[in-house]
Write a structure and sequence with these properties.
The protein is mostly helical. Helix content is 79%, strand content 0%.
Length: 95
């Protein structure tokens, strides 16, 4: 990977961070839970990417990073669904 490619990729990561922060800050708090539920379904794509990264033969840096990404992405998706379920339980009528 050349230095130019690394700078472009770093630029994209920083720019997407700023755009994501601005988009999330404009959303009213009442919409965060449904939006979280929808984005957790989309975040499953991260798990697929982590599986591809960890599928390398042998133990390399990319395999270790892929396994770490798989672990963190799975925690993100599962905890998002847990939080959404807890929020929805608040709206159900008590027996």
């Amino acid at each position: 990977m050349t230095a130019d490619t690394l700078i472009i990729l770093l630029y994209i990561v920083v720019l997407s961070g700023f755009i994501g922060f601005e988009l999330i800050s404009k959303i009213p708090p009442t919409l965060h839970t449904p939006l979280l539920s929808a984005t957790n379904a989309i975040a499953g794509v991260t798990i697929v990417g982590a599986l591809l990264a960890s599928g390398a033969m042998g133990w390399s840096v990319s395999k270790m990073l892929g396994i770490a990404a798989l672990f963190l992405a799975t925690i993100n998706v599962v905890s998002g669904y847990v939080v959404t379920d807890r929020m929805l339980q608040m709206f159900k009528k008590k027996k």
